[in-house]
Design a protein that fits this description.
This protein is of the alpha+beta class and 343 residues long. The chain contains 8 helices and 19 strands.
């Protein structure tokens, strides 16, 4: 999920940042340092900081990796933090598979306040006392938002309507209604509840609730929309105040690095990445190849299925090289992409 736009059809798609936000914007000062060696082909998992767009992170990593060939597998809105999976060099060809992987998030939902964007970056629409919401009611409402759902994406999203982004139409004053889309939410757990106080429209104090949640969902799910629908089900409205992505497919925060950590890499040393084969092992089942099979696949030929499961499979040569991604077609495994040169 799913390129580098501030928004995307993903659980984390947010509102476009204000002009000038994100360190990747504007003309970069002249850098007279020697050019860093080009990073190897591989995957880099970044712990995205708040206030940066995914495009800002890609721009920064292009400089750090000394290559333009950098892409990412699913946007995070500027407010959000956490796992952003980048492909460098030939590994960009793996991103199409990572984009569709399921994802884990932790988030905070504020019950009692609705906003124009369904997150903290929008303007307040309504404020409602949420102090009467019980733990049982909250658990029941969250449970009803798990499983296979038809979710209406936020109108302030990057989904295109007649060739134009929905958020652009909303900003132009149009009323946008998006069609519901099938998504799967396999986990929507309440982790904790804390009371809070906000200022109501009349200037008085209103009691609201901040609810910490954990979400596991399919590609295309909007966590902002989950927050919106949770508030609607409880009759008090809600919006998302914090969002952190902790996993994308097989890549979690345990292998993520911050941009500050990457920046301290010595200028004469290439930025370290997850090698192609290691990155593929984290994302796919593996089919170990013989030397003969590896050579056949490198020429685009099929090989016996062996013990390979259905779906995309990483084909690994005896020397540990990732030959390509294969899938079963008929009685053979055939390449979807070939990454090792024939020879």
């Amino acid at each position: 999920m799913t390129e580098a736009t501030p928004l995307g059809p993903d659980a984390d798609g947010g509102t476009p940042p204000a002009v000038g936000t994100g360190a990747g914007r504007g003309r970069r000062p002249r850098d007279d340092r020697p050019r860093r060696p080009t990073a190897d082909d591989g995957v880099l998992v970044v712990d995205k900081p708040a206030g940066w767009t995914s495009h800002d992170v890609v721009a920064r990593v292009r400089r750090l990796a000394s290559t333009r060939k950098v892409g990412h597998a699913g946007t995070l809105d500027p407010m959000a933090t956490g796992v952003l999976v980048l492909g460098i060099g030939r590994a960009t060809r793996l991103l199409t598979y990572v984009t569709g992987a399921d994802k884990d998030y932790t988030a905070t939902v504020r019950l009692g306040v609705r906003t124009t964007t369904e997150d903290a970056e929008g303007e307040t629409l309504t404020v409602t006392d949420a102090s009467a919401v019980t733990s049982d009611a909250l658990a029941t409402a969250a449970a009803a938002l798990t499983g296979d759902l038809l979710q209406v994406p936020s109108a302030v999203s990057a989904i295109k309507v007649d060739g134009q982004r929905a958020y652009a139409r909303v900003r132009a004053g149009e009323h946008v209604e998006l069609a519901a889309r099938p998504v799967t939410v396999s986990r929507f757990d309440v982790l904790g509840v804390a009371p809070a106080v906000v200022t109501g429209p009349d200037g008085g104090e209103v009691d609201v609730l901040d609810v910490d949640v954990a979400v596991t969902c399919s590609s295309g799910t909007y966590v902002r929309a989950l927050a919106r629908d949770l508030g609607y089900a409880l009759g008090v409205g809600a919006h998302l105040t914090a969002l952190r992505r902790t996993r994308v497919g097989g890549y979690g925060l345990d292998v993520a690095r911050t941009l500050d950590e990457l920046e301290v890499t010595p200028q004469d040393v290439a930025v370290d990445v997850l090698p192609m084969a290691e990155a593929a092992r984290a994302a796919f089942p593996v089919r170990a190849l013989t030397a003969r099979e590896a050579r056949a696949l490198s020429y685009g030929q099929g090989v016996p299925v062996g013990d390979a499961p259905d779906g995309p499979v990483a084909a690994i040569a005896p020397d540990g090289t990732l030959v390509g991604v294969v899938s079963r077609r008929g009685d053979a495994l055939r390449p979807e992409i070939v990454l090792a040169p024939a020879g």
